[in-house]
Design a protein that fits this description.
By secondary structure, this protein is an alpha/beta fold. It contains 13 helices and 21 strands. About 35% of the residues lie in helices and about 25% in strands. The relative contact order is 0.13. The site of flavin-adenine dinucleotide has 34 residues, from helix 1, strand 2, helix 2, helix 3 and helix 9.
């Protein structure tokens, strides 16, 4: 008789948990996974996937306007939110089904319900108590709702994909990538969007030139911004409208409020104390480079560890854990040089060091920029400029960072990230022949 019910028990069937479960099972482990909501986790159910589909859906608004300049006549165009919403949600259902199939094909047992650790080897899910040799915590994160009177009148990204109807006026609290992405989507769909920010900048960790360009383009499009706004409370009015009341200044009114002020690791009700699992100073589960917690047989991956809150990172951490612990193939995730994007309108993408970070780390750096109007925008009469920026180490000529805002920037940057990760030099960029006519050719033409 084995000492435990399972070799591995995973808590959370999101990006990290599903990958770890199926890879560990593939290595021969007896695996079970607990999920309290829906298999697929944040990314598939209420994050990257439905968000990106809304980005696609909303961009038609501009494309259909521009189409006229390209000779198209579009009579009687209109937009129907329930159609977009329901098609997106149907796609989410389809993907969830694929995740279920993946787990069952690998003989991973799925337990539905909230999982709580009773001790380092025992987990309770509903009325079932099971034991496991190793435990992986992959419970992700959830939207932060500020501790303010009336905060409950706002919704979060969890609810935004299910709106009955679109509001006329939307307030988005926050300045990070989720705030800017939803600002772009809902503005395109005809909603009056105001982004309310506690500080004075958007996208704090991004290169300042790109941040400024996004702000300028967003304002030109008609998105409103209120900076340095310290909130006192939120009120719901008798007519159903919402008012954000700043500590000083007049109320900011709208029909809906979306909180996009950050995400916090899901650690509540997990029984971390009972198992003796320690947190770090960000209230995330503290782990070492092998995703191992302070308790020898308990590991954690993904957003709950708050290293880099992105799907491909959670997936890699889950894969590295499973290969290392169950596959006799030890390896570690490299958290440096991770590409990321903001699917705002237009989108931003970045890899490596910003100009400021590169100057801190390397002292002397060369900066190359290309500030241009994509030919499609020129013909469309759309005065929107793209900005590409390369940050290069003056001593070695190595490209330390690449930053872009403009149409398709994330698609272009994924390939560019290979070059930056491979530590290529600016001279090697210059040796590459341009592919004409593209926007991406600017990357090899900056002098
Ligand atoms: C609106 C939005 C847009 C995003 N866009 C992008 C993007 O474009 N690109 C990108 O890379 N990332 C994006 N992300 C982030 C990405 O979704 C997360 O980084 C990723 O899902 C993290 O994976 P995870 O496995 O750590 O956690 P999750 O995918 O969140 O999975 C955790 C799972 O654990 C379950 N769970 C929690 N506690 C328990 C418990 N006690 N018992 C049982 N089950 C439990 C949860 O229900 C959940 O299903 C976005 C996130 C949001 C919210």
């Amino acid at each position: 008789m084995p000492a435990y019910d399972y070799d591995l028990f995973v808590i959370g069937a999101g990006s990290g948990g599903v990958r770890a479960s199926r890879i560990a099972a593939g290595h021969g482990a007896r695996v079970a996974v607990a999920e309290e909501h829906r298999v697929g986790g944040t990314c598939v159910i209420r994050g990257c996937v439905p968000k990106k589909l809304l980005v696609y859906g909303s961009h038609f608004a501009e494309d259909l306007v521009d189409a006229r300049r390209f000779g198209w006549t579009l009579e009687g165009k209109s937009f129907d939110w329930p159609t977009l919403r329901d098609n997106v949600l149907a796609e989410v259902d389809r993907l969830e089904g694929i995740y279920h199939t993946t787990l069952s094909n690998q003989s991973v047992e799925l337990l539905t319900g909230h999982a709580t650790l009773l001790d380092a080897h025992t987990v309770q899910v509903g009325d079932r108590t099971v034991t496991a040799d190793k435990i992986l915590i992959a419970t992700g994160a959830r939207p932060l709702i500020p501790d303010l009177p009336g905060a409950e009148h706002g919704i979060t990204s969890n609810e935004v994909f299910h709106l009955e109807k679109l509001p006329k006026r939307l307030l988005i609290a926050g300045g990070g990538y989720i705030a800017n992405e939803f600002a772009g989507v809902f503005h395109e769909l005809g909603v009056e969007v105001t982004l309310v920010n506690r500080g004075d900048m958007l996208l704090r960790d991004w290169d300042v030139a790109l941040r400024d360009r996004l702000l300028q383009i967003s304002m030109t499009k008609g998105i409103k911004f209120i900076f340095n706004c310290a909130l006192d409370r939120v009120e719901k009015r008798a007519d159903g409208s919402i008012a954000m009341i700043p500590k000083d200044g007049s109320p900011i009114e709208a029909d809906m409020l979306l909180w996009a002020v950050g995400r916090r690791p899901n650690i509540e009700g997990l029984g971390l104390d009972a198992a003796g699992v320690a947190l770090n100073d960000r209230h995330a589960i503290a782990v070492d480079e092998d995703s191992r917690t302070n308790v020898d047989n308990i590991y954690a991956v993904g957003d709950v560890t708050d290293r880099i809150q992105l799907t491909p990172i959670a997936i890699r951490e889950g894969q590295a854990f499973a290969d290392t612990v169950f596959g006799s193939k030890p390896w570690r995730v490299d958290h440096s040089c991770v590409p990321s994007a903001v699917f705002a309108n237009p989108p931003l993408a970045s890899v490596g060091l910003t100009e400021a970070a590169a100057r801190n780390a390397y002292g002397s750096v060369h900066v190359f920029t290309s500030d241009f109007r994509p030919m499609r925008n020129v013909l469309a009469g759309r005065n929107e400029r793209s900005l590409y920026k390369l940050v290069v180490d003056a001593a070695s000529d190595r490209v330390l960072g690449a930053h872009m805002i403009g149409p398709d920037a994330p698609e272009i940057l994924q390939a560019l990230a290979i070059a930056v990760k491979a530590r290529l030099t600016k001279a090697q960029f210059d040796e590459t022949v341009a592919l004409h006519p593209t926007m991406a050719e600017e990357l090899v033409l900056m002098r």
